[in-house]
Amino acid sequence: RMSVRARAASQGSLDDPDDEVVPYSDDETDEELQSEDDLDRMCLFCVLTVILLSEPGWSVRANDREYCNQPQFKKKVFLCIKKSKYSGNAIKTYKYNFLTFLPLNLYEQFKRAANLYFLCLLILQIIPQISTLPWYTTLVPLVLVLGITAIKDLVDDLARHRMDKEINNRRCDVLLNGRFEETRWMNLQVGDVVRLKKNEFIPADILLLSSSNPNSLCYVETAELDGETNLKFKMGLKVTDERLQEEDQLARFNALIMCEEPNNRLDKFVGTMIWDAQSYPLDLDNMLLRGCKIRNTDECHGLVIFAGNDTKIMRNGGKTRFKRTLIDKLMNYMVYTIFGLLVLLCAGLAIGHTYWYESIGSKAWYLYDGLGYSSSYRGFLSFWGYIIILNTMVPISLYVSVEVIRLGQSKFINWDLQMYYADKDTPAKARTTTLNEQLGQIEYIFSDKTGTLTQNIMAFKKCTIKGRTYDINFPFSPIFTQPVDFSWNKHADNKFQFEDSFLVSCIRSKKDPQILEFFKLLSLCHTVMVEHKGDELVYQAASPDEGALVTAARNFGFVFLSRTQDTITIMELDHEETYEMLALLDFNSDRKRMSIILRFPDGKIRLYCKGADTVIYQRLDPNSQNKETTQEALDLIGATAIEDKLQDGVPETIAKLAKADIKIWVLTGDKKETAENIGFSCQLLTEDMKIHYGEDVNVQLRNRQTQRRNDPQGRNKKLKEQFFTESSKNALVITGGWLNEILYEKKKKRRRLRLKKLRKRYTNSSSAPDSSQPVDDWEKEKRQEDFVDMACECSAVICCRVTPKQKANVVSLVKRYKKAVTLSIGDGANDVNMIKTADIGVGISGQEGMQAVMSSDYAFAQFRYLQRLLLVHGRWSYIRMCKFLRYFFYKNFAFTLVHFWFSFFNGFSSQTAYEDWFITLYNVCYSSLPVLLVGLLDQDVNDKLSLRFPKLYLPGQQGSLFNYKNFFISLFHGVFTSLMIFFIPYGAFLQTMGQDGEAPSDYQSFAVVAASSLIITVNLQISLNTSYWTFVNCFAVLGSIAIYFGVMFDIHSAGIHVIFPTTFTFTGAASNALRQPYLWLTIILTVGICLLPVICIQFLHQTIYPSVGDKKYEMEDEEEERKKRKPTFQRGGRSRRSAYAFSHSRGYADLIASGRSIRQRPRVRPELRESIREAPQAENI
Asked: Most buried residue, 383, 485, 826, 1066, by CB count within 10 Å?
């Protein structure tokens, strides 16, 4: 249970929050959402009473599957259909099955406006009265679009099927009919008794009953669940440990478990077990959660409490959000704009046809059709006819072309060898194909710390003993730069490295008792458990930094060998000593240190203590108010520095991204001191920055809130004054407790109750309201907006001691109030919520399992690859997509609007300007490949220059390459091209005589000349827009033109006309028209006039108004101007306190003191994954 202080802080207490307490803000159970007074009085007995009295509650009967199917446990699903509220253990993440794929996929695709529009268009084309084009001109492209998208969705869903099948078909032993039988995970049910073995994953949330270890102790690895790599121990109840060891005993087990409803609280479980008329309380220490792995325990037995979607890991998955890029949203708005223009054009042409028929058409005898329609009705039919003809203004192939480009860009990310991490054989992986161009528009990056910026592998780097420092940089002689040889120590860990041989020589000579005392303390004052694996010692630490300290003592000759409930045995260089343990005071968040009282073999009693300097120094100062009788004589022996080494290239990556105007916020669950140290190590924080903490921020925000209240117009105007007026750089370091205090992020029900009380108090009182509390929701929102504004004024922001939900809330605030594109990057299960909330989620496949990777959009192994993902792939993808869209709209406007100009010469009669098959194949075959290749391959600069000049990233953040301005430029460009393509051939055909004496001024010859001019123009236009030429691009442009002429001559041939006389009507038109040199001259003239202005404008624009990319070669070399970086640690600089004790989790003291750790027999222990390291930290001893 939460401490009173923590609970008060979470409920909006006016007391300052505790910086060392993580405020849990995830979902709470119904029992917790009571009034505040009830909550404060609630104790464990009361909680259990509420659970027992609730109807029907969550209850489980051991070895009784039918119990969960009783009527009181049924819930209504649909109408009268009911099913059990207890989930099965099968996991389902796929969307389709064999029967539902086709209808569901088509339904989802037709929810896209463009697809639905073309379906309606296809229906219109079937109606004879308004059909102006054959039905196949729309059906062929629509089927291609739907088919390609369906295939892509099918491939993605098959991958989900395979993953679900692999998980659901894992095996475990379940007790059925009195004996254990192997079964699949998917067949497990609530109430089953299961048997788990070493290194197996836990299939459900299970109550631990017994294990092969003494006192039913069971070690679990929770990396997949909470991101922590150190092992945790779970214990069964004493009664189940004594009575449920054998198979027949487990078969007779029939206890009733009453507990809380399924929820996502990883830190809490409350329940009771009723067995043989006795009640036994249950808590989280008795539970094995799904996603964990059994370690160092040969065998254990448990009872399934929550299965499948009811398990805590599934409840913590967060809601999967459908992510769309800014370009996607903008593209949809533009399609709506095009549709609006289409309706206006068609309405105008319909009105034109009405007046034309009234004044001319009805009086021309040769136009009489015998239908007797009125002019207004003919205008109505003409409107729908032009809707069909001009439908290509809304490009049907746009969406499928975009999907193809995104798929190709994703493959390029997967194939990038410079993002491949050879040490772990881990390539980069684009796990989505819909967000690539958004990588080129990132403004804010939210990063986890441990395992993301750091390697999460702890290493003992240096120590100071009685004022003398021993480290890897010994200053006196070059002979000490070689690694120390520990071959003299048979227990040494081969992975441990140290380069100060002088320290080893001092230890082996035994001349300095202070050094010997220092390492004796390290080998004795800890809660590490040890296991003998053959001749090798395997340490099991509650935290990786404590393991690093004990391993260091081991290598320097003070080897921790074993422990019992009352003794600790160590090897001191060449002899073995056993010390009697009188008391062990474990680390907790209040003490921030641990102590041990030992009786030495000579009878002396000594207290050893280690912890963070902030608490150790208080007990050394004789003027301290915290002096205690046993602490006045504490003598400082020395201090250690443990390093959680930064990943390679982290400072350089952060600097490079900062130059690209990308702001980086660090969100971590670590202590404030640890997070601040990492900030300095990775140069996110620098010595010239002024750091503001939660207290300062809270004061400034209260002042702004008071200023707004005192202003009569405060609610109607926005205060735009900056929070920081100094010219110096500012940084913000804030803890989760202060974050809740500042943002009023409390439970919704409690917040409503508090706001109601405050409004009532404010109404009844003549005094002003407390500035620390919001009067209403509007003030709460303004407070949040003020915080975001303040944070965005800072050069660096670090949020520490924050929960997974708080991480997501911070990301949401920036998205909401800054309308910015955000990216979250993390490596643990505690980062999943943040990754899902951001516009882009990146998972690092590091030391903390694959939970973050499985929830991410992109994944790789090292943080440094982020700069290549954004500055190279993201930037390229954005530029390519923008260029593709601008050109795609242009070529469709140029193609479609020729019909519009032609309508002025055909009585607005809905006659097409081209041959039907040309309209069908224009976007599919004649103009698609070159622009697709530009969208896939084009580069304005290569990858090296993209990384060398981060400023090239700015156009993406500004959205300057594709917006409504660019859209209307493409529109006017298309209008100009369509004018030239229609009127130049039209003028040439007015008075023309061919070489054979015939006038090639018929409609079919005109259609051939206009189509040929269009194809050559649009393909040469994409050539002008291509920055990076390859053989493939050249082949695509020339090939598209060649395909056009080849297909045209085929469909205009006499042979195909004989086979399909009504479908192919342009018999001999191509060969008749294109044999005239005059018409070839017309085509060349049309193409030249269309392209010449474009060439001139591009030349003048690059000369007079060059873009950032145009000036790339004129930029000053950044490598030369880069200043020599200051060392991270400097004498006389800002002191950065360590956080060893702050980051240290609860150890095994309770376990040791209870005697439950006494080993009965040596067991084979699996290989542990390597320990995890923390940034240079000092720990005082």
From this structure: 826
| 527 labeled part of a ligand binding site | no
| Phi, psi values for residue 1176, rounded to 5° | -40, 115
pLDDT confidence tier of residue 1096, bands split at 50, 70 and 90? very high
Locate the DSSP E strands across 170-242: 171-176, 179-184, 193-197, 205-211, 217-221, 232-235
Tell me the β-bridge partners of 295: 219
Provide the pLDDT for residue 550.
93
448 marked among binding-site residues? yes
Which pLDDT score is estimated for 855?
78
164-210 tens-digit pLDDT: 888 899 999 999 888 899 999 999 999 999 999 988 999 999 999 99
Neighbours of 942 (CB within 10 A): 12
827 is in an annotated binding site: yes
pLDDT in tens, 1004-1024: 888 999 999 999 999 999 999
Flag whether 566 is marked binding.
Answer: no
156 annotated as belonging to a binding site for a ligand: no
H, E, C per residue of 32-57: CCCCHHHHHHCCHHHHHHHHHHCCCC
Q: Please state the length of the chain.
A: 1181
**Does residue 748 register a pLDDT over 50?**
no
Alpha carbon 426 to chain centroid distance? Answer: 18
437 belongs to an annotated ligand binding site: no
CA atoms within 13 A on the CB side of 1138: 28
What is the value of pTM for the model shown? 0.76
User: What residue spans of 390-512 are helical by DSSP H?
Assistant: 397-414, 501-509
In sequence order, which residues have a C-beta less than 8 Å from that of residue 518 and are 6 or more positions away? Answer: 463, 465, 637, 638, 1181
pLDDT tens-digit series, residues 302-329 = 999 999 888 888 876 655 566 788 888 8
Taking residue 533's Cβ as centre, other Cβ atoms within 10 Å add up to 13
Whether residue 624 has pLDDT greater than 60: no
Distances (CA, A) of 33 to 36, 45, 109, 745: 8, 17, 42, 15
Distant-in-sequence, close-in-space partners of 349: CB < 8 Å, separation ≥ 6: 382, 383, 386, 900, 903, 908
> Annotated catalytic sites, by residue?
448
pLDDT, one tens digit per residue, over 573-616 is: 888 999 999 988 877 656 778 899 999 988 899 999 988 776 78
Binding residue per annotation — 706?
Answer: no
Spatial separation of the C-alpha atoms in residues 916 and 953, rounded to whole Å: 44
Please say whether the beta carbons of 32 and 39 come within 8 A.
yes
Place of tokens 């404060």: 40
Categorize the per-residue pLDDT at 273 as very low, low, confident or very high, splitting at 50, 70 and 90: very high
Q: Rounded to an integer, what distance in angstroms lies between the CA atom of residue 126 and that of residue 133? A: 9
User: How many Å apart are CA 96 and CA 551, to the nearest integer?
Assistant: 52
The Cα–Cα gap between 550 and 546 comes to: 6
Q: Which two tokens stand for residue 777?
A: 């929701």
Spatial strand order of the sheet with 271-275 comes to 58-61, 256-259, 271-275, 278-282
